[in-house]
Specification:
Layout (H helix, E strand, L loop, with lengths): L2 E2 L7 E9 L5 H4 L11 H11 L20 H17 L3 E6 L1 E8 L2 E11 L3 E2 L8 E2 L9 H8 L10 E4 L8 H4 L6 E7 L6 E7 L2 H14 L2 H8 L8 E5 L1 H18 L11 E8 L19 H15 L4 E4 L2 H8 L7 E5 L2 E5 L1
Parallel strand pairs: 6-7, 7-11, 8-12
Antiparallel strand pairs: 1-2, 2-3, 2-5, 4-5, 4-10, 5-12, 8-11, 9-10, 13-15, 14-15
Helix pairs in contact: 4-8
């Protein structure tokens, strides 16, 4: 991924995109993200069967189900060899510099995305960071070293990273979707294993690229940002949606290279940037699945501690009591915000 420059203050770079050539079967090429189905070997066995001997992204990634296995080193060596082979034999072809507009349909819903490169100098995954790019969950640093082993000698950048933007007026990604008749189609095919359908389009005209950059800059214009969020804190433009540990690994790799090569935060280098897919949090095609947590044997002072913490974070938190769970559901139905139900020896209630 060789970088060219469209100057902007928001850490976005226009990458040179490599894609499979026309002779490649794209349904065999595209595979799910490496951190999926980590406890379902049958899924990956079926993916192996489908890909068979055809060129496939499966050959240039390490599904995390195989992390820390005895053959990990051999797999990583094979990944690097396949990357070089795919470049040398024309399996991968350069489409030039540009973004890629992506449209994926699954289960009747279509979501839009935009492939860009983000500057890792604008990212800090530590708690309380004020960078333009931030993590939305805790980063487990122990997960970085095994991923770093994969990335260390890889000649290509091929992550699975989704990054969210808050664009209620739909000014960044969606306008491109309305101009596809003027945009070069890159691919259009069905994904394996009931993964749905995907299309990709090259966004390479300077006017298109500048429109995207201008719209992104407008999202963090100081006066508008302060009014929108009611804060004078440094703006958050890019929120990690999925693949935070992949992005953190890219950051660790860049820091390693800076140290080894004596580079600084001002120096340009391909490893300074990571490919991501931007998605608008207001896209109706995105489904946010809740992760439910049930805690047992919580001491009563633990409930009081949680109420105090929630009150600190949300300018208040009530502890409500009900005669039954049915009454709780009826009372809270349709109310804004979140309710955390609890059952104790004294009865039923919720923190709200």
């Amino acid at each position: 991924m060789y970088m060219t420059k469209y100057e902007n203050p928001i850490g976005v770079k226009v990458p040179e995109l490599l894609l499979p050539s026309a002779k490649v079967n794209m349904s065999k090429w595209a595979v799910v993200a490496c951190d999926q189905y980590t406890s379902q070997p049958a899924y990956w066995n079926e993916t192996e069967r489908i890909a068979a001997d055809a060129p496939s992204a499966l050959r240039i990634m390490l599904p995390e189900i195989y992390l820390d296995k005895p053959d990990e080193a051999a797999r990583i060596e094979s990944i690097n060899a396949h990357m070089k082979e795919y470049m040398e034999q024309g399996v991968l072809e350069s489409k030039g510099e540009g973004f890629a507009y992506v449209r994926r349909t699954v289960d009747g819903r279509t979501r839009q995305g935009l492939i860009v490169a983000l500057d890792l100098e604008n990212y800090d995954y530590t708690k309380g960071s004020t960078t333009l790019i931030r993590a939305t969950e805790g980063t487990i640093v122990e997960r970085i070293p095994p991923r770093l082993r994969i990335r260390k000698d890889a000649p290509l950048e091929m992550p699975h990273i989704l990054v969210l933007i808050d664009d209620p007026e739909k000014t960044v990604i969606e306008p491109i979707g309305k101009q596809l008749d003027k945009t070069q189609k890159l691919y259009d095919f069905d994904l394996m294993q009931k993964g749905g359908h995907i299309e990709g389009y090259l966004v390479h005209e300077p006017a298109q690229i500048h429109a995207v950059l201008s719209a992104l800059e407008a999202l963090v214009e100081p006066e508008a940002y302060a009014k929108k969020y009611g804060t004078d804190q440094p703006p958050l433009l890019f929120a990690m949606g999925d693949g935070n540990h992949s992005f953190a690994t890219a950051k660790a790799n860049w820091e390693r290279i800076k140290t080894e090569q004596g580079l600084t935060a001002q120096d340009m280098h391909p490893a300074r940037y990571a490919l991501v897919e931007l998605e608008n949090v207001h896209d109706t095609g995105i489904i946010f699945e809740p992760i439910h947590r049930v805690l047992f044997n919580v001491p009563e002072n633990g409930l009081a501690w949680l109420q105090n913490k929630l009150a600190e974070q949300n300018n208040g938190c009530e502890k409500l009591a009900f005669a039954s769970m049915q009454e709780l559901r009826a009372a809270m139905a349709g109310k804004p915000g979140h309710a955390l139900p609890f059952v104790t020896e004294k009865g039923v209630g919720c923190l709200y």
